[in-house]
Amino acid sequence: MVKHSILPQRGFFPQPVYLIGTYKDDGNPNFALITWITFCSVNPPMMMFASRGKKLTRELVEKNGMFSANLVTTNMMFMADYFGNTSGYEKNKCEDIQAEYSKGPALNVPVLKESPWIYECSLIDIIEKGDGYIYIGEIKNILVDGVIEDIGYGKIDMINLKPLIYAPGQYYKITEKIGTVGLSKKKLIE
């Protein structure tokens, strides 16, 4: 296969979609669409997300020292897109689209009723890199939908969970499982 070079950029990187939740000073929730998110520690369990530019969510996470990370499903695409394209400085986004939320059971963070998998995190570090910031949170609680029973490693049914996947400028869905970790070893042994 012939390859060619392109300029360094962020044009690929398919990623899951999360809505980062915090409370405003007036007690109203604020959620922002974040796709630059991943895990960064197993013990203790930690996750990180990156953000750039002037954003209310960044300010509130820094001020409050905590956040929720609400997995977005394909059914939540409109909500995520609205939250990602509407300023929290000017509007009560949840009220605008009647998004239902409650307070997390472990931390004072808003959690979305419609999200099937939610992390409640306490902020432990902020790292400035280039024109962006990396927020590292220790996971204090995970809320999962009642229909999710087997949460063991590799057991979560992604097709039925329907996570929304983002690749710059587009949303996608998962439609097929094609293998398991360790598949290559099994093939070599056979």
UniProtKB/TrEMBL annotation:
Cofactor(s) this protein requires: FMN
InterPro entries linked? Flavin_Rdtase-like_dom, Flavoredoxin, Split_barrel_FMN-bd
What does the UniProt keyword field contain? Flavoprotein
Similarity section? Belongs to the flavoredoxin family.
A UniProt-annotated Pfam family: Flavin_Reduct
Q: Can you name this protein?
A: Flavin reductase like domain-containing protein
Where do transmembrane segments lie in this chain?
Answer: none
Give the organism the record lists: Geosporobacter ferrireducens
Please provide, alphabetically and separated by semicolons, the GO molecular function terms listed in this UniProt record: FMN binding; oxidoreductase activity, acting on the CH-NH group of donors, NAD or NADP as acceptor
Superkingdom in the source lineage: Bacteria
Q: Which residues form the Flavin reductase like domain?
A: 10-155
Gene3D superfamilies registered for this protein in UniProt: Electron Transport, Fmn-binding Protein, Chain A (2.30.110.10)
